[in-house]
Amino acid sequence: MSFPYQIKTLEQYRQVYQQSVSDPEGFWAEIAAQFTWKKPWDKVLEWNFKEPNVKWFIGGKLNITENCLDRHLAENANQPAIIWESNDPSEHHRVLSYKQLHAKVCQFAWVLKNNGVKNGDRICLYMGMIPELAIAVLACARIGAVHSVIFGGFSAQSIADRLQDAQAEYIITCDGAFRGAKDIPLKSVIDDALVTCPFVKRVIVYTRTRTPVSMIKGRDLWWEDEINKVETMGNPDFPAEMMDAEDPLFILYTSGSTGKPKGVVHSSAGYMIYTNYSFVNVFQYQKGDVHFCTADIGWITGHSYIVYGPLSAGATSLMFEGVPTFPDAGRFWNIVQKYKVNILYTAPTAIRSLMVFGTEFPANYDLSSLKVLGTVGEPINEEAWHWYDEFIGHKKCPIVDTWWQTETGGILISNLAGVTPAKPAHATLPLPGVQPILVDENGKEVEGNGVSGNLCIRFPWPSIIRTTYGDHERCRTTYFSTYENLYFTGDGALRDEEGFYRITGRVDDVLNVSGHRIGTAEVENAINMHHGVVESAVVGYPHEIKGQGIYAYVIYNGNLEDQDLARKDITATVSRIIGPIAKPDKIQFVGGLPKTRSGKIMRRILRKIAEGELQSLGDTTTLLDPAVVEEIKTSRL
Ligand code: PRX
Question: How many whole angstroms from 403 Cα to the centroid of ligand 1?
C-alpha cells in the first residue's frame, strides 16, 4: 500500500491543513478515492449541526472488510495482519497473515449467516483480547451486522442494559478471559445478563479458559462446532455485503454526565477513511512496521487503532491479552523486544503505573526497534511524559499525545510523529479536516493565543458520531445544543502562545479514571441502590496512578458500627450494577450533603474537599445548611 496522503513535513502539514479548511469536500474526496468502493459516491457531504444530520460520501457503497482484508491479498497476503501475545508468556504466540485473517473472517461470517444473522442486526461481543474478538468484529462488518463490543470489566446488569437498548439478538462470548492472575468467567456473566433479556436468540461461545459453563439447548452454541460446520461446507469465500456509506458499522456505549450510557453510532465509510487517515499520519506508519496499541477492543481506541485503522492500512497490529504488570512490570518491554515493535500506543495511566516499578524494567530489554510512542485517554502529566521519552523512547522517538473521544471515532488533535512539533502535555495541533474552536460559557468564540475555553469543533470530519442509538434527540442535546452550530466535546482546553492545544480535562460531570470514562450520576445511581444508602454524591479527585479517583460522599441509615464492612457492601453493589471499573476509591459517610436552597448539590465544594483544598471552598453562605460543610471537612478521608 502507498499513502499519497501521508504528510511528511511541517510546511506540508500547514498547506494541507489550509486546503482541508478551504475545500473540505475536495480534500476528503481525494483521500476517499484511494479506497475500494463497490459504487462511487454521488455527493461528498451533507450536513447541519442543528438536527444534527451529517452524511459523508452519499450514495457510495462499500464494505469495510474489503478495505481491511481483500485489498491487501494481491500484494501482502502473507504479511502478518495480527500478532497475538497471550496473557501467559509461556503460551505460544499466534500470527495471522492477511490471507489467514481473511479466511477466518469469511468462515465466521458464514457461522453468523448459518445462525440467521442479517444485514443490520445488532450483535453484542463480550470477549477477552484474543484474535477471535477481532475476527468476530470483522465478520459482523462483512455480513453488515452492527457490532457492539462490551468491555470485559462491565457487570451483567450493564450488559443487560446495553442488550436491551440495542435490541441485540446475538451474543458472541468466551467461556472466560485471562487477565493477569485472574480468570474472568465471561459466559457466566452473560448468563446472568440474559435472565432479563429473553429476546436473545443465540450465544456463540469460544473456548479460551476451559472454565465450566452452562450451555442452554437451542440458544447456546460452541464457536468450534459452528466452524466445523462451515468446514464441511468446504470453507467457501464469503462475499462481502454491499453496505451504504452511511450504514452503521458499530455501536459503542459510553458514559455521559446524566443517566445511562449512550450508544454512540459510527458509520461505515467516514469512519473507515478517518481512522485510516489518522493512523497513517499521526503514527507516520511505514510499510512493515509493527504497531502495538495496548488498549482493549472494548474501547474506541481498540476499535480504531487495533482493528480498523491499522488493518485498512495493511499494517501489522499486535494484540495483547494481558496486563502491563503480569507476570512483572517488564511485560510491555518484553513484548516490544520480542516482536521488534515500532509504534507503541498506550495510556498515561499505564505509564504512571509502570514508573512506580523503576527504570530497571525497561533497561533490561532492547527497545531499539521503537520509532514512535503515543498516548491517549487522558491528559499526560509532564513527569510521565519525560519518563516515557527518556526510558522508553531513549529520546529518539517522537511522542504523539492524541486527543479524541468515542464520539469522534479517530484522533482529532495530535502532533504528527516527527513531522509537527511535540510539546510535553500538549496535544498540539488539529489534524487536517478538524476545525477546533474555544468558546466561553456563553458560546462566544475565544480568539487568539494564550487563551482557554470550552473545546468545540465547528465543521464535521468523516468519523463524527452520527447518532446515539435509538434516541437521536439525546445525541442532539448532549453534543449539539450547548452551543449553536458547534459540536461540544465536554472538554476544556488552553491554546498556548504558539497556538498549541492543551486539554485540561472534562468540564462536565464525567470522570476519567485510568483513561475510562465514568459518569458521576451513573456511580451515584449504583451506590443509591444499596439497601442502607439514603443519598450520595460522587466527585473525582487527583489520583497518582489513575489520573482521577472516585470519591463518594454517602448518607447512610444502616448500621455503621463497622464502617469498613459498609464500604465493602457499597463497593460490591457498584460492581454488580456497573462493574469493577466503577468502584469508588474512597467512601466517606456524612450526615448531610451541601445543597442550595433549591436542593441542588454543590459539587464544587465536595470536589474541593476531596482534593484537600479546604481553605478555598468559596462562598458557602447560600447553602441550606452551611454546618454540613464543617462536618464533612472534619471527617474527610
Ligand atoms: O477528556 C478527554 C479524554 O478522554 C475523553 C474521551 O474518553 P473516551 O471517549 O473514553 O475515549 C478515550 C480514548 C480516545 C476526552 O473527552 N482524553 C482523551 N485523550 C486525551 C484526553 N485528555 C487529554 N489528552 C488526551 N490526549
Answer: 6
Q: Whose CA is nearest to atom 5 of ligand 1?
A: 405
Fold exhibited by the domain 511-634: GMP Synthetase; Chain A, domain 3 (3.30.300)
Unique residue bearing C-alpha cell 498549541: 500
Nearest atom within ligand 1 for CA of residue 402:
26
**Nearest CA residue ID for atom 4, ligand 1:** 377
Q: How far is 407 from 52, CA to CA, in rounded Å?
A: 14
Instruction: Please name the residue whose Cα sits nearest to atom 18 of ligand 1.
Output: 377
**Tens digit of each residue's pLDDT (9 = 90 or more) over 493-525:** 999 999 999 999 999 999 999 989 999 999 999
pLDDT digits (tens, 9 = 90+) for 262-289: 999 999 999 999 999 999 999 999 999 9
Going by C-alpha positions, the residue among 42, 46, 52, 53 that lies closest to residue 24 is: 46
Question: Of the candidates 274, 330, 609, 305, which has an alpha carbon nearest to the alpha carbon of residue 465?
Answer: 274
In this predicted structure, the answer to whether residue 633 has a pLDDT above a threshold of 80 is yes
66-241, what's its fold? Rossmann fold (3.40.50)
Question: DSSP characters for 102-113?
Answer: HHHHHHHHHHHH
Write down the domain spans for the chain. Answer: 66-241, 511-634
Query: Rounded to two decimals, what is the model's pTM?
Result: 0.97
Determine the residue of 511, 512, 518 to mutate for testing ligand 1's pocket, defined as the one with the most ligand atoms within 8 A of the Cβ atom. Answer: 512
pLDDT, tens digit, 9 for 90 and up, residues 339-357: 999 999 999 999 999 999 9
Q: What is the pLDDT of residue 179?
A: 96
